[in-house]
Design a protein that fits this description.
Length: about 500
């Protein structure tokens, strides 16, 4: 049974190895369109290339991710969108297969002996009931983020599997064992542990005792989450009154992984999820108008934030430190994103912005975010492959961290319209020389921050590392170079801004 399936996998692996560049390019081209659906992005794994395998395009995609731990080493990141089955391949030949078997499909698969998952499913149903088989020897059972899991050795096959039950649904990991490669073994262990299934069927409203709250005539305000569940659905009412607000820092530094809000909530407090390093996905309430300051600050693993259609304003630092956030859909009603935002959002690469957007626009590929009037460049996605970029004429300001970690970018040309370049705007890029137009009056300033020990609301920080600054003597460019101890090369005022 398993040999037949592994034979198919190896055939697929060979085909994918031969066609990897084309598939990777196709995944990149189709990703923005996929972000328009309810499918969550599948996070690339360091050192692996991930390919979706779709057996039937009419199947409803599952919602899952491999939440790669921050301390994994090396490799390029690749991206494919969540589908029921994903094959991840490493250059060294290791494969990881992640597959969903929906509860609604189980009966049909069991009746169809020709189905490739028929015998597979029988194994899974048996081992998840605590019984080993001739093919599968149970090694351990454990709790995987609230879901029962069973790890088995595929006897004589050189593979192990982890089966996970999510109510009536089944999921499994399949991966080769390699006793001689300890680093790989540890990587697989971390990969399994980081597996996340969104919306487990068992999830229900969190009980009132999971919260501290106050109540008045207008409704209930939740002030603190005190529960220990990883998946939290906030109830629409508590003690017969509607839940209308979730206050400042209510989930601060908790271990929640997914949170959904009822439509009764119309207001959120600042730094609501600050420091929630396990948080992966959030569904915001339908009637929210403002995403407050620091909402997702330091949510390193946040991969999906479903912004509601009526959102009109995002305050500063709402997406500060979201180093796993890959794509973001901006609702048409959104008029303002305060600076700084997207700070250290190193892999944020695509924006879905509609033609009727009130406040924003993108380039044709959706990889660079501008204000609607074209005067502000907010973010340049790291998956832009060009080594040089000319900022369009008309852009007057470049946000802090706008080009952060775009290492392939080697040169940038600024327009004469430019007036300010935000702090760390070119940090961790390949740019090593800047020619700054004479009209620029601010370089390297990070705004709307608190400077400890003073009343200052802005600070001078680096534009980038090891950068030579070229500019007109006496200009903001020279002042910046002096403050940051960078080499300054004077140029004539009429020199091109390259």
């Amino acid at each position: 049974m398993l040999r037949r399936f592994l034979s198919l996998l190896l055939t697929l692996a060979l085909a994918l190895t031969l066609t990897a560049p084309a598939l990777a390019e196709e995944a990149a081209e189709t990703a923005p369109a996929a972000s328009e659906s309810s499918i969550l992005p599948f996070r690339g794994m360091p050192g692996y290339t991930c390919f979706p395998l779709v057996a039937d395009e009419t199947d409803t995609p599952g919602r899952f991710t491999l939440d790669a731990p921050m301390d994994w080493d090396g490799g390029d990141y690749s991206m494919a969108y969540g589908v029921p089955t994903v094959l991840a391949m490493q250059d060294g030949g290791h494969m990881v297969l992640v597959t969903e078997i929906a509860g609604t499909q189980i009966a049909a698969i069991r009746q169809d002996s020709s189905h490739m998952l028929h015998n597979f499913l029988g194994e899974g149903l048996t081992v998840t009931q605590g019984q080993s088989t001739e093919e599968s020897k149970i090694l351990e059972t454990f709790d995987l983020h609230g879901l029962p899991a069973t790890r088995v050795e595929m006897v004589g096959q050189g593979f192990e599997m982890v089966w996970i039950r999510d109510g009536e649904d089944l999921w499994f990991f399949m991966y080769p064992t390699d006793p001689e490669d300890q680093a790989y073994t540890e990587t697989v262990a971390g990969m399994v542990d980081s597996f996340t299934v969104f919306h487990p069927v068992s999830i229900g409203d969190a009980p009132a005792e999971s919260f501290e709250f106050t109540a008045d005539d207008t409704g209930v305000t939740i002030t603190k989450y005190t529960g220990d569940a990883a998946y939290v659905h906030i109830p629409a009412e508590i003690d017969g009154k509607p839940v209308v607000k979730v206050d400042d820092s209510a989930f601060y530094e908790t271990d929640v992984r997914e949170v959904t809000f009822p439509d009764t909530v119309t207001e959120l407090g600042s730094y609501l999820f600050g420091g929630c390093t396990e948080l992966v996905t959030v569904t915001l309430p339908a009637h929210l108008k403002t995403l407050p300051e620091g909402t997702f600050e330091s949510c390193f693993r946040l991969q999906n934030a479903e912004l509601n259609s009526g959102l009109t304003r995002i305050e500063e630092s709402a997406f500060w430190g979201n180093s796993y956030l890959f794509a973001l859909t901006l609702p048409d009603a959104l008029e303002e994103i305060e600076e700084p935002n997207f700070v250290m959002a190193g892999i944020l690469s695509w924006f879905d912005v509609g033609e009727n957007s009130a406040g924003f626009s993108t380039n044709e590929e959706g990889t660079i975010l501008f204000s609607r009037d074209g005067k502000r460049l907010l973010h340049y996605g790291m998956y832009n492959e060009a080594e040089s970029y000319a900022v369009p004429e008309g852009v007057e300001s470049i946000d802090a961290y706008a080009f952060y970690s775009v290492s392939q970018l080697k040169s940038i040309t600024f327009p004469g319209s430019l007036r300010s370049i935000g702090g760390m705007a070119l940090a961790m890029t390949g740019v090593r020389e800047l020619t700054i137009p004479a009209g620029v009056t601010e370089v390297g300033i990070l705004k709307n921050i608190t400077v400890e020990g003073s009343d200052a609301t802005e600070a001078w920080v680096a534009v980038g590392n090891e950068t030579t600054v070229r500019g007109v003597p006496g200009s903001a460019a020279e002042e910046y170079a002096k403050r940051q101890n960078k080499t300054f090369v004077p140029v004539e005022e009429s020199a091109p801004a390259e």
